[in-house]
Every structure is written in C-alpha cells, then in structure tokens.
Amino acid sequence: MSDLQLNKILGAGLATGLVILGLGQLTGILFESEPPEKPGYAIAVVEDTGGGGEVADTPPDWGTVLPTADIAAGQAISAKCAGCHTFTQGGANGTGPNLFGVVGRKPGSHGGFAYSAPMTDFGAKNPVWDYDRLYLFLKAPGKDVSGTKMTFVGLKKPEERIAMIAYLHSLGSTLPIPAPKPAAAAPAAAAPAAAGTAAGAASATPGTPGAPAATPSATAAPAPVKK
Ligand code: HEC
Fold it and tell me: What segment(s) does the record annotate as region Disordered (predicted)?
C-alpha cells in the first residue's frame, strides 16, 4: 500500500518535472522565435538597398520618366496596397487612408483618418507628398517615416515605385508633371518634341540606324530611367 502511494507520489513528481521541462522548452522556443524576426526585417531592408543597385537610390527625373511610365503596371502593383487602402475618389479609409489625390496632398491630412504621430509630424515638416517624397517613402515606409503605422515592407524596385507613383498621379493628383530637368533635356534642342522623341525612340532606333540626330537623344533618354 505504502509502496503504491510512494509510486504515485514519485510518478506525480516525475510528471510535474516533465511538464516543467516541457514548458521550459516551449518558453525557450517562444523566446527564440523573437530575435530571428527582427533580423528578418533588417535583412529585407538590406536586400532592398542591394536590389536598388550599389548606386544611391536617388529619385529619377520625373519630367522624363512620368510621361512614359507604365500606369497599368502601377495599377497592378496597387493590389499590394488594397488590403489597407482604397484608390477611388471618395473611397473609404481602411487600415490606411484613402489614396485618391494623395499626390500633392499634405502628408497625414486625409479627413477621417487617425494618423500616427510620426506621420503627422512628417506632414508638419513636408507640406506635400511630391514625387520624390513618395519615391523614398514607398521604398521603405518604416525607415523613411520612423514609427509610421504603415506596416508595409515597401517596393524595393525603382521601376515598381515609378509605376506606382504614375498610377497615383493618374488619380486626382494636384501636382503637374514637371518639365524635364536641363541635364536630362540637354542633348535635346528637341525639348519641345520631348514626349514624341521618348515615345518614338524605341521604334526609331532599330528602324533608322543611319539617323545621327535621333541617336544621342535616344541613348540619353533611357539612361536616367534605368537608374
Ligand atoms: C498593412 C497595411 C498597409 C499596406 C499594405 C499599405 N499601406 Fe499605406 N498606409 C497604411 C497606414 C496605416 C497608413 C497611415 C500611416 C501613419 O499614420 O503613420 C498609410 C499611409 C500611406 C500613405 C500616406 C497617406 C497620407 O495621407 O499621408 C501613402 C502615400 C501610402 N500609405 C501608400 C501606400 C501604397 C502605395 C501601398 C502599396 C504599395 C501601401 N501604402 C500599402 C497602411 C498600409
């Protein structure tokens, strides 16, 4: 009888010990899983800068890239934002604010949306979402506006951001497309025909290899697009 009781007591003690061990391991697993998450984020950010090339990811010349940017591609990319944002005029705020007309809007100013303090502060320092600011923000929102509520990793590829911004610009933007910068427009005394040159460049180059006038502007125009 007392042997049986002893066995019970020992058994209970053993079971308790096992449970404690198990909990300890479980806790260890839970705690261990936390650190890898942060490096995961950091690595993604590092990849971002790598993806943009070793060269500093400076915004493109908007007057050159926007007229020929792929708005449809931008609309396709907006599927990544659609879980949090609407893009239609008068569309509802969700996890994020409605984005119709965001180009030219003051950051953190859309009616009825509770922005984070960092975004409101950002708006106090930056009066409008212009192309450059959107380009930098969309690359890594949490890096550009530290503490933002926008928990989106960002669009690492410059061409993705350009297409996205072109799409946003097509939605009630209050900012005009600027004139191409003098540096980019320099080879073109053809500045007035800039749009035509850019559009025709692709077909003109293979078609007329002998035309020397078209070649300098054709090579000069795509260069800033790739950067
Ligand atoms: C996980 C949800 C989420 C996703 C996905 C997301 N956003 Fe956001 N976005 C937010 C939130 C939340 C804010 C408000 C940020 C704040 O107040 O700090 C915001 C703010 C913004 C703003 C500033 C708006 C303003 O009125 O100042 C822009 C621009 C923006 N997002 C663009 C995008 C684009 C473009 C995408 C897709 C490529 C995207 N967001 C994806 C949640 C998201």
Answer: 196-227
